[in-house]
Structures are given as C-alpha cells and as structure tokens.
Amino acid sequence: MIGNDTYVHVPEQMVLPEQSFDIDVTLESVILTDELRNEISALSPHVRLINKRVVEKIRSRYSENDEMKRLRQLAQGVDCPEYINHIESCRAWGKTEKEKIGLY
After folding, report:
1. CA distances from 83 to 2, 13, 37, 47, 103 (A)
2. Residue-wise pLDDT tens digits, 21-72
3. pTM, whole model, 2 decimals?
4. C-alpha radius of gyration, the chain, whole number
5. What pLDDT score was predicted for residue 90?
6. Cα distance between residue 69 and residue 79, in whole Å
7. What's the CA dihedral at 78, 82, 87, 89 to 10 degrees?
8. Is the distance from CB of 61 to CB of 86 less than 8 angstroms?
9. Number of helices and strands (H, E) in the chain?
10. How does 4-20 read in b/e, with b if 16+ C-beta sit within 10 Å?
11. Residue 97, C-beta contacts closer than 8 angstroms, at least 6 positions apart
12. How far apart are CA 31 and CA 40, in angstroms?
C-alpha cells in the first residue's frame, strides 16, 4: 500500500471477470513507471522475501567470508568462474521471481 492505494499485479494474459463490490473500491490500470516500480518494490514483502531467498541460495554454497575472499580474488584479477556462475544463477532466479509479480 502506498498512501491510500493498494497495487495488485494482474498478468497481461489474464482477464478479470466482472467484479461486484459491496465496499467503495475503484479499480484502475496504472502505467508502471520505473519510479512506481521502485516504490512498490521497496515496500513489497514479496520482494523482500525473494531477496532473502537469493541470499540464502548464495549462502548455501558461500559464507560471507568465502564471498569476501572471492571478491578480493576477483579484484586482483583471479578468475572465479564457479563463484560467478553461482551468483548469477541465484540473481537470475530472483529476477524471474520478481518478473512473475511484475516487479522487475
């Protein structure tokens, strides 16, 4: 909820049936600008959970200390392909999950 507005993602291919409301509700489409997407993402418990799960996926293989070591190695020009592939895989998963809810 931002201000008095609640935002709901409805995939493009979905057609909503006629809604009957007993409460005072107005449904309207909005253009999801980058600014609005960022604002919704910052407040979304779903995005927070996805971000948390991305970190958990990374931590399943690399501790924070391991990750700092890999980052130092990369800064020194040492190639760490397994690390990079794992991180990118975790980030791609997070991006896909956010796309599912219209927030990427």
Report:
1. 38, 37, 30, 24, 26
2. 666 777 788 888 999 999 999 999 999 999 999 999 999 999 999 999 999 9
3. 0.78
4. 19
5. 98
6. 12
7. 140
8. yes
9. 4, 0
10. eeebeeeeeeeeeeeee
11. 50, 53
12. 13
* pLDDT, position 97: 96
* 41 and 35 Cβ atoms separated by less than 8 Å: no
C-alpha to C-alpha distance for 82 and 63, rounded to whole angstroms: 14
Scan for tokens 């190639």, then name that residue. 79
Distance CA 95, CA 76 (A): 29
pLDDT greater than 90 at residue 14: no
Contact present, 55 and 91 (Cβ < 8 Å): no
pLDDT tier at 91, thresholds 50, 70, 90: very high
